[in-house]
Amino acid sequence: MKEGRSRSIRQGRNLPEVRADNLSVVIEALQKLQPIARSALAEATGLTAATITHMVNELEAFDLLVEVPSNERNVGRRPTLLSFNRKRGQLIGLEISRTRILAIRSDFSGQILARHEEPFQPTAQVAEGLAAVSGVIRRLIDPSLPLLGIGVGVPGPVNSTQGTVIEPPNFGGWRNVPLTALLRERFGVPCWLDDDAKAAAYGERWFGAGRHEETLLYISLRSGVGSGLIVGDRVYRGAHELAGEIGHTTIHVDGPLCECGNRGCLETLVSVPAIMQEARRLGVEAHSPAELHRRAVSGDLVAGNIKDRVYLYLGAALVNAVNHYDPAVIVLGGQLVRSWPDLIGTVAQRVKGRSFGYLSKDIRIVESALDSDAAALGAVAIARHNILQNPAAALQATEVQAVRAAEVQGSGTVKHLHT
Ligand SMILES: [Zn+2]
């Protein structure tokens, strides 16, 4: 019904969404400044005292805050200070990749409480994969605390609205797996998912190299080139969840065929497999990107040329990205960034030199601060972000969920899988 309306009439932003944005601003400030008085919170966030009172009342109604008396006395009145209620509950953020399951448990403020990682190889037996994921969650949760929600980052493509893993390449044949519905059924709490690069973008935005930046572009350079574009604190998806797919910008119009159907995409030229294939083709003896880099810096001209071409392509793609999106910060992560230490500096110099000179001089191009934890931490942020959109629905009756989650032994889920 909503879809029908949205075809002809532009959709407005209702008060709950505006409120959710303000709640997120208040929470971010609290995270950084707690314990803090209401008046200081108003000053720090630029919100009026009345709005702060409203927001704080709302967070208190959900038992998310605790108040402690301040030691300072102002004209006889002792202000109370606000902090997050650590006992209110826990969030789980997961990254499910082709090689591992990484789970991070945090409180509502994003404070990390525990981390657990297990090797994982997806197979056509989706039920087994789900059992492994559930096992990791069960191992990680604290049964004495309510579980508030679960966020998941998985290889794309995904349908983030429906919470479905569509059909990631080399992912054991998973196809149209309604992952969030299956996890919700097992744990009785709201779940959300996104593709791993978009989750990592969220991670860097809230906990990493892009903290406090409203516009951020995250790019991971590894077996593929994933990306996530955050505009105004939200992942910008476009009409078909394709926005910001830097890996599929055209570099060579008649270049190699890409999985997406196009030719000469950035991914076909700078992904780790593409680079290593090029090295083999040109007879460079290197078994890893790090080895190729060592050869290049020690004077192997062919290896050096491969490296230079990669920087040239990356620089061109980033100049395009700057001209399209003008992010405050571009965060680069993944295996290639880790093994090629001069990548960021070289590429940054090219971008700053080419994209409208003085205008682009302030764009920060930096390395991921969270490394391989970015997607799981981002999944925590996704869960919290969604809870804030409708706290009443998400947080009600969570008191019993921790106990349930600890008790539930997965059953009755296999029949819903579409593999
Ligand atoms: Zn492509």
Automatic annotation (TrEMBL):
<dbReference type="InterPro" id="IPR000600">
    <property type="entry name" value="ROK"/>
</dbReference>
<dbReference type="InterPro" id="IPR043129">
    <property type="entry name" value="ATPase_NBD"/>
</dbReference>
<comment type="similarity">
    <text>Belongs to the ROK (NagC/XylR) family.</text>
</comment>
<dbReference type="InterPro" id="IPR036390">
    <property type="entry name" value="WH_DNA-bd_sf"/>
</dbReference>
<protein>
    <submittedName>
        <fullName>ROK family protein</fullName>
    </submittedName>
</protein>
<dbReference type="InterPro" id="IPR036388">
    <property type="entry name" value="WH-like_DNA-bd_sf"/>
</dbReference>
<dbReference type="InterPro" id="IPR049874">
    <property type="entry name" value="ROK_cs"/>
</dbReference>
<dbReference type="Pfam" id="PF00480">
    <property type="entry name" value="ROK"/>
</dbReference>
